[in-house]
Amino acid sequence: MAEKSSYKTTAERRRTKDQSFVEKEQAVVEGIDISGQWNRMYEPREIQDYDTTYLDKLTDLPGGESMGWCYQCAQCVPACPVDTAGGDYAPRKIFRRLQNGNDFFNHRDLWLCTTCQNCLRVCPKEVDMIQIIPAARALAVLEGNVPDELQEMFQNVAEYGNPMGQSPRKRARWTRKADAAVRVLPKDPAPVEVLWFVGDYYAYHGRGVDAANAMTRVYNRLGVDFGILGADERSDGDSQRLAGEPGLFEELAEHNIAQFRKYQFDKIVVSGPHAYNAIKNEYPKLGGEFPVEHYTQFLSAQMPKLKPLLTRPFTRKVTFHDPCYLGRHNGEYDAPRALLQAVPGIEFTEMYRCKAQGYCCGGGGGGMWLDGYAALHQTERLSENRVKEAVEVGAEVLAVCCPYEVSRFEDAVKSTDNDGKLEVLDIIEILDRCME
Known about the structure:
Number of domains: 4
CATH class of the largest domain: Alpha Beta
Number of helices: 20
């Protein structure tokens, strides 16, 4: 009978920084010599060896629990747009750094997430950064740990109801340049078919105003009976909630809900995916339930009336960027594409990353105001990565349907030396150009 193995050994325990093992100099098991490294037995690293102070602090937060479910499969890493842009990021990496004692609440990891939801799409353990990140940021904001750019945005929204710090009285000023009628409901409160929630960037930003005017012309050509809140509208609050200011979100939401209740309308139509997400999914938690559609959904349902009006050809190669908060967050991929494919003469092409696997522009989750901060920790902006992809598929036009994206991508076109090669247009601008 073979000599039974024993642990009478003269080999000393050998240690490295992260592991320890025992190894017998001589060992024979059932006649097989496994002396030396062949019998090496690694000792498990006990959980007590980790500093879980900040992991526990995070998982103890309402909404932060799922960070503790990570089992390091790393499927999230290639899905994370921040990691793709050189940010050394993803839930798996955050979890590992938390295990090693990283103070997440005072670390750059807290502010790089754009809440795009692509990691959750592939995570077998459902580690939900869409709950984790806002919960952690809310605590960090309370503790005074917030990037200066974000603090300025919060202050502007709190004082003026918009991130630009513009007077609320100027919110409807863009209508003065509109060459079609716009009913401002506080001045003319008659019932309407559509209450159009214009949004900050359509109301105040130069390129957003271009899209707002295009929307007005399209609505009027379709005979849509619509009105806007004008100076009584405030930010939808979704980005502020995701960036760590739930109290500010509630204040904005309650104000907007009160305004909605003043008027009779069939549905709310919004310009942006964040407003759509807020009014559809978050406002009902505060008692405000209203029928709401993104403008691409509303217009695609008008196709029998819309398509005959699209008489001018748009003979260019066009690709489309799926907004995270319209696509992955709310499952709408078809409406924007239906509108583009209805345009006469268009050559439509998809980018490699599209629909559920679409890439993020970098503006979500407060990222719209953190480009400078992100530049310190990434090799490129997410918007630049996306523009390069649009150019690679041969597109002449990058079509979008989120008010954040026109300015983001136009800046990225310039910074990637693609000025003159790629034009960025809101879908509503393309439709407007094709109408008589």
